[in-house]
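Appendix B. Worked example

We walk through a single record from start to finish. Start with the input: the chain for Nodulation protein NfeD, Massilia jejuensis, length 467.
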Amino acid sequence: MNHHPTRLLFTITQLPCLLSMFCLLFLLGVQAAQAQPRPGAPSVALLSVDGPIGPAYADYIERGIAQAAKSGRTLVVLQLDTPGGLDSAMRVAVRAILAAPIPVACFVAPGGARAASAGTYILYACHIAAMAPGTNLGAATPVQIGTGPDPPGAGKPGDARPGQPSTLENKAVNDAAAYLRGLAQLRGRNATWAEAAVRQSVSLSADDALEAQVIDIVARDVPALLAQADGRSVSVRGQPWRVASSGAALVATPPDWRTRLLAAITNPSVALILLSVGVYGLLFEFMSPGAVLPGVVGAICLLLGLYGLQLLPINYSGLALIFFGLACMVAEAFLPSFGVIGFGGVIAFVIGALLLLDSEAPGFGLPLGLVAGVAVAAALLVGATAQVALRTRRRPRPEALASLEGSIGEVLGDAVREGWANVGGETWRVRADTPLARGQRVRVLGRRGRVLLVAPLDQLPPGRAPP
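Next comes the structure step. The output line below is what the pipeline stores for this chain.
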């Protein structure tokens, strides 16, 4: 039996590739088997939060704890690195931790991470508090914008001296201090420092926090944390619980696509851009009926932007100014005022964007550069619209019916009896006795008000011949 040399050589050269593929599949199978804990063996869920605490991460923590409990995990490790976040989102996360049916350990890591502001409250709420060397926590004073005087009954006007906090600010600080102090007392941690973190914005390093009994463990990584947490007694829903984490399999649950999408659209900068793109997309659709794509994209962006803003602590006066400004810019395209309405809309948009958010929480502010960029782009668009309007005004317009009769136009979209057509470089509403097709050429027979009476060139009435 003869073997062709070329075929034999090809088979030999294929062997290394086949062996490499086999080894790769084997390693992937081993890794997958290691990732899934054995039935009956203890396992620990690892959640990772790296960024400002907002609605997205609050939902991620809440769902992660529920899924870990449902899957039979013995412990949830929440690895945290945050500059702070929204008070409402922080409280959702804290409620989920307090109601957890299994222990939750907060681990501020890796080195260089922090649990500032809202992160401090989450760490205090957890059953076990741990930090990696080179990390810090604290500075838990609530920060809000004072957009107006105190409401009636909040205090006398003379209560707050110049340079002193107002009555509303005192209320917010006192509420936050009591909240963090209550969490400290619940977990048996240093309540005095917790109150100082709110009232004086103090911070601590990992070693200092351990010495001050603010945290329970200092560990270099998650396995070291699990080794030190094993055997500790904690209270879960008022019942004693002994942590069993020695030799437990670690199951990482990173943020999924839902969390990443929610985090993106709840970013105030992204929400503002989506809102602007949505309005302009609908504007282009109205100006060019039948284009479809601008309208679809605009509607999606507008709905996503509104959904993102709905989850944020927005100032409704600022939102109303933004919509008023966008409406003025849209009106400039349909009711040319040679820039007066449009530039007024740009000013309203900028003021509304600056007032949009009620909170100055880290990661949830609107950069002035973004507001300025969107305003400049809108001003350029308004300027271009005003220039077109001025050009159109200077252009001699046909006044008599005879100047339009006999003109040739092109239909812009399919229509049964009435539609739109381009006649003499302008878009006109047209009416015909027969259906019209997109791109079909028609001749103007007359005009009835603002509607042109047309007929297809191939169906002209007797006595009228195409050119």
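Two observations about the output. The two ends are 82 Å apart (CA to CA). The longest strand covers residues 43-50.
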